[in-house]
UniProtKB/TrEMBL annotation:
Source organism, top-level taxon: Bacteria
Pfam families: DUF434, DUF5616
Residue intervals of the DUF5616 domain: 84-221
Domain spans labelled DUF434: 24-79
Location of region: Disordered: 1-20
Species of origin: Chryseobacterium geocarposphaerae
Name by which UniProt lists this protein: DUF434 domain-containing protein
Amino acid sequence: MNNRNRGKNTGDDTLFGPQKQREKLTSAVQDMYYLLSRGYAEKASAELVGNRYRLKTRQIQSVRGASASAAQIQNRKSKRLNVSDLQDKVVYLDGFNVLILLESLLSEAYIFEGLDGCFRDLSEVHGTYKRVNQTLAAIELVAKFYRYSAVQKVIWIFDKPVSNSGRIRQMILDFALENNMKWEIDLEFNPDKFLVENAEIVVSSDAWILDHCKNWFNLIQYLIDKEKLSVNLVKMLEE
């Protein structure tokens, strides 16, 4: 086992810990909502908001992830399912999206709740996935969901071009076989497109997938509530 985790970056406590910074981020997200709802481009909106509030790069990244237009929020909420809707259904997981977010959460990295109710982190793959200390625990959380929800099958979809995707596929496949779970783990060259076109129910916090999928389930919210997980949470919406 290695000593890697997906915890905080140096400086994250300064950027996301103080109440003053969190209030600034909440205001920035509200401004982004206003601009996006009126048709402004996301990149231009983020630049404008970032300049106004003098945000650092990681703060802007968190604001972009948490923001959405009124139409996007309405669309996403209309397709969100409850756990009771999943019984005997096939659920597709956006593999790296789900796994890395859970690893970050378990590593006590900052997790951000957006306007659409989804949770996101600031980790990135950059073409290579590296297993961390929390990988197995993250997979075990998905296993608990599998058992609790009584879904028919879970299908993990990973990015084939990402280095080590084959290794994580084999690790999860071995775990499923050892624990007698009906899981499939597939590699796709364009997982986002595959999930939108093939999944009736998808688990992801990717904005493009949420905008174009048929239905989705908020697995992270479910696990936080069900397992009473300790989360280093930054709410990016006004209470």
